[in-house]
Amino acid sequence: MKELLLALLAEWGIIESCEMMNQIVTPNEYFGNKFFTDREGKYSENLSIPIMRGDTIIMEAIPSGGPRPSNVDESIHKLAVELARFADTKNISVVDIKHLMSFDDPEKQKIAFAKIIGQKAGLTKNKFTATKEYMRLGAMAGIVRDGAGKELFKFKPDDHAAFSLSSAINPASKFEEYEDDLVSEFGYVPEYEMMCDRVAYNGIWDYAVANKLTGTNGSVKKTKVDGRTCIDFDGTIVKPITNAYPDKFGNTRKFFENGKGILVPIGTDAFQEFYTYAEHEDALAGEPQEYFTKVKSKDDGSGVELISESIAIPVNTRPYAVREVQWS
Predict the structure, then answer these.
(1) At 125, is the pLDDT very low, low, confident or very high (cuts 50, 70, 90)?
(2) Distance of CA 138 to CAs 56, 115, 141, 255, Å?
(3) What are 87-96's pLDDT values in tens digits?
């Protein structure tokens, strides 16, 4: 058995293992795929992140042949950030793999072993991405927390109060106010959407029904966006986010608390994610990997373990481009 394991493990070098983990596609990475597509490897876990406000100024004409001025285009605040470390270990016992000895073809043994490793890696990747999705949504609103509730990163404008919504307030008026925010931030109105919990979502729909905005000729309707049933409120998408996961203490953590939501731009430079080397000597060769993993034999001879690690942080570098919403 030991000789077989050594032969199978020889196929799983650090490069192959990391490529496998990084290539696994998980179904729970909506925020990462839609908003945090700008991901950058760093060579340190301590970073200075630029927090920006504003992008456009009206330029002054200069004389022909005169020197070109050096204009500061945006207001920048540097914020010190420490990347957060997450790790997991999956055990594969001798009982799980002893059937491989019955294969008469070494190639079949390799394929069967790879399936076992891939299944374990998929479970770990799903755990990592669920954690990062929770952090990404927090980053949009300005506070990143981990599964124990620990605050990892915070930058929220003090003068940027949440929009209040209720059955007496037309959501369209708040969308228009938000569009003014976006013009101030980007110089134009990028595509945007509202994400909220089910309480705010149902309240907005009930408002539309009560004010006769729905129906065949109405300006408000329900539609499918990214696989979810959303409200199209006269062109603005309102999307329910009902994700909830248990934390390390067994408590259920909702992505949005009751009545809360955010208005968020799409396709801008507001959202970034940074990652660095895992805390393992084999991770230090080459460039940083978003996900590091290694398959190794257990010292006590009881099987194999898959160790995985990811050190990363998502941030919103334009906090004035996001507006919180509170339904009451």
Answers:
(1) very high
(2) 27, 35, 5, 8
(3) 999 998 888 8
